[in-house]
Automatic annotation (TrEMBL):
GO terms for molecular function: 5'-3' DNA helicase activity; ATP binding; hydrolase activity. This is AAA_12 domain-containing protein. Belongs to the DNA2/NAM7 helicase family. It comes from the Eukaryota. Residues 2-64 form the DNA2/NAM7 helicase helicase domain. Keywords: ATP-binding, Helicase, Hydrolase, Nucleotide-binding. Residues 77-265 form the DNA2/NAM7 helicase-like C-terminal domain. It comes from Caenorhabditis tropicalis. One of its GO terms (cellular component) is nucleus. SUPFAM superfamilies: P-loop containing nucleoside triphosphate hydrolases. InterPro entries: Coronavir_polyprotein_1ab (IPR050534), DNA2/NAM7-like_C (IPR041679), DNA2/NAM7_AAA_11 (IPR041677), P-loop_NTPase (IPR027417), SF1_C_Upf1 (IPR047187). Signal peptide: none annotated.
Length: 266
């Protein structure tokens, strides 16, 4: 431990104060990554007295999850990055304006809604999932494998089938009384997601490179059940099924996102 020069740790790790207790460890800098996930009232280690601190994050990404509903009501889920951005004139701020993670068609919406179209795309337009499909899809289904695809279930004109695309409330039988005791599922969306997943697997896409994400725990359980029922495909357990929060910071070749909420009013 006396020879340590660089320490990697989670923000609340008890390991940090332990290392800082060594007189030989005198770091000149502390880098806080994913700062938008660190709550502003997070306790800093007492000995964390660096000469320089670099805070890295994106204020437009997911905020930290409050530990309970009361914390959210009292706005205790603000991050240290939020606090810095409110007083950014006091700090030296640098904006990274290039992105290398996804195709320009995928980033276009976020770029216009959150970044004032200032993000510069550095990925190759020709590098899409279609390049990895073996065999290639039939021409009539070709657009389903574009970099960004939106399937609008409200276009279903048959009244009975359209009703089948609506969300359903699913009540939890286990939980504390003060907690929200229901979630949402959408069976039609789950079926569409699984059908697309099956087609990707048939075209030799690695299950570990696919993620199926959704905002609701009820939909996660439904998707997980449907995945487990697929007997014709191996290693389905390698496919990520979860919330956006659970996939934060990870990368996948294909992401299927089930929004769940759909009703006559929306």
């Amino acid at each position: 431990m006396e020879d340590v020069r660089i320490v990697f740790a989670t923000f609340s790790s008890g390991f940090v104060p332990k290392v800082l207790s060594f007189s030989t460890f005198d770091p000149c800098m502390c880098v806080i990554d994913e700062a938008s996930q660190v709550v502003a009232n997070q306790t800093f280690p007492e000995d964390l007295k660096m000469k320089k601190m670099v805070v890295v994050g994106d204020p437009n990404q997911l905020p930290p999850l409050p530990p309970h509903a009361e914390a959210k009501e009292k706005c205790l889920n603000a991050s240290i990055l939020d606090q810095i951005m409110r007083k950014r004139d006091r700090f030296s701020c640098v904006t990274l304006g290039e992105q290398y993670r996804c195709h320009r068609d995928i980033i276009r919406w976020s770029n216009s809604c959150f970044y004032q179209n200032k993000l510069v795309n550095r990925t190759r337009d020709a590098n899409t999932i279609r390049c990895a499909l073996k065999p290639s899809p039939q021409r009539k289904f070709d657009k389903l494998y574009d970099p960004f695809v939106f399937i609008d279930t409200s276009l279903q004109k048959d009244v009975e089938k359209r009703t089948g695309t609506f969300e359903q409330i699913q009540y939890n039988t286990i939980g504390f009384a003060e907690e929200k005791n229901y979630t949402y599922i959408n069976i039609a969306e789950a079926d569409i997601a699984i059908e697309h997943y099956k087609n990707l697997r048939k075209m030799r896409i690695d299950p570990a490179s696919i993620a199926i994400l959704t905002p609701y725990t009820g939909q996660i359980d439904l998707l997980q059940t449907k995945i487990e029922e697929l007997k014709d495909f191996k290693d389905c357990h390698l496919t990520k099924i979860g919330t956006v929060d659970s996939a934060q910071g990870q990368g996948y070749d294909v992401v299927i996102f089930s929004m769940v909420r759909s009703n006559p009013q929306s």
